[in-house]
Amino acid sequence: MPRKSMPDKKKRDSCPLPGHTVDRWISKLGLGTRGMAREWVRDGRLSLGDGTLVQHVDQFVQGTPGSEPVFRLDQKILSADPPAVFAFNKPRGVLVTRTDPGGRETICESIGRSSGQRTGMDMSRLMPVGRLDQASSGLILLTNRSSELTRLLNPALEFPREYRVQVRPSLKKRDWEMGLFGGKWARELGLKPVDVRYEKENLRTTWLRVGLKEGKNREIRRLFESGGYEVLHLIRVGFGPFCLKNLPPGGIVEVSSFFLCKGKIVLDIILDMIHSGDIIEVKENGVVVSPGIRARDQ
């Protein structure tokens, strides 16, 4: 099959009117994710408002604020859900991805079975903010405005994360006293020092609280494995000002109000709460705000 031609970048850049590529428009307008746009174009399902079939996601489409383009999916006009953000307690074993060729359970399937709050929106459009690996569990944010919320993950913002970690064997006193988790081991792996606090232990394992301000791939597992410890459980209990309380695995709670101002996503609201030390407790029956209480005191 002949390869489809790509748009001429020089012609696109010299276009007198502003606009975006198709996948960017789909994401920007809250109609879906860029990945969804690629799937729709690949399957021949996406067209412009006049019915013209979209040939590739890099196709440039003109538009201005207040005069955005219209898209059709299966010839039906796509309309955006209002901006929404949810806190989800990801169960262990669930993949943070839309689909899995191997048939493993994905986060989209888990949300579909959740007994959490329903708003009438298309839950399949929700995308995760950041990642949790398959063997990890706990708090993750989901949104239909992923292109905006992923800015929170910029390392320069030092967006805090907190985890409960169970390691085996039981933590050696020498390693604890030498502070290897936040010093030598981290430096050898090219990681920033982490905040490690003791929680409880038995003869075989130790539970710890670990705080990060930059979430690199498998950072906590790599850190403990480098010291000869096996991570048995890794549960994210804090993400920014959000603190996981009694929300059960698979539970989902809407937290949109903490991100919205006049119907638009405003990240400064969340960043100000972090600066003030406010905690948003995510519970089974909703959320509770505790002003000025640090997550480490919970």
TrEMBL record:
GO terms for molecular function: catalytic activity, acting on RNA; pseudouridine synthase activity; RNA binding. The keyword Isomerase applies. Residues 85-225 form the Pseudouridine synthase RsuA/RluA-like domain. It comes from the Bacteria. It is an enzyme of class 5 (isomerase). Its EC number is 5.4.99.-. The keyword RNA-binding applies. PROSITE patterns: PSI_RSU. One of its GO terms (biological process) is rRNA processing. InterPro entries: PsdUridine_s_RsuA/RluB/E/F_cat, PsdUridine_synth_cat_dom_sf, PsdUridine_synth_RsuA/RluA, PsdUridine_synth_RsuA/RluB/E/F, PsdUridine_synth_RsuA/RluB_CS, RsuA_PseudoU_synthase, TruA/RsuA/RluB/E/F_N. Keywords: Isomerase, RNA-binding. Belongs to the pseudouridine synthase RsuA family. This is Pseudouridine synthase. It comes from Leptospirillum ferriphilum.
